[in-house]
Amino acid sequence: MNLIAAVDKNWAIGYRNKLLISIPDDMKYFRxxxxxxxxxxxxNTLLSFPAGMPxxxxxxxxxxxxxxxxxxxxxxVHSVDEALKELEQYDSRDVFVIGGESIYKQFIEHxxxxxxxxxxxxxxxxxxxxxxxxxxxxxLVEESDxxxxxxxxxxxxxxxxx
Length: 162
Description:
Elements: E1 2-7, E2 12-15, E3 18-19, H1 24-34, E4 38-42, H2 43-48, E5 59-63, E6 74-77, H3 80-87, E7 95-99, H4 101-107, E8 113-119, E9 127-128, E10 138-143, E11 147-149, E12 152-161
Parallel strand pairs: 1-7, 1-8, 4-5, 4-7, 5-6
Antiparallel strand pairs: 2-3, 2-9, 8-12, 10-12, 11-12
């Protein structure tokens, strides 16, 4: 199973249910990596999308404790175990955990590859994901050359579980 996220220097991922910054090449990278795949997310992540609609051309699996929540075009599950059961029908290499904070934390032990856009800046944030740099179970195996978006430097990184 994969994880994909954009993080800042503090491994922050969002503020007030929004991304910290929208970098066009990062959005393109996300689309290229996840189109035709399965995306696992929490309800707030889904609701942060335009019109709160699931991502097009992907299987959307939404984990929420809200038993009454429904999302047209998405499979709604209510526990990690239920999500894992739902995901058994897919090749794990085609599954991407896309957030938010609680979803990353709940699924990190099931993930073996993480695609991280590392933004070399500290933003005001209220949501974070586990810092793979501080976790001895993870190893950085690939890093792009420095990318820039206006004055922001960032890198595309790939981590694998040891």
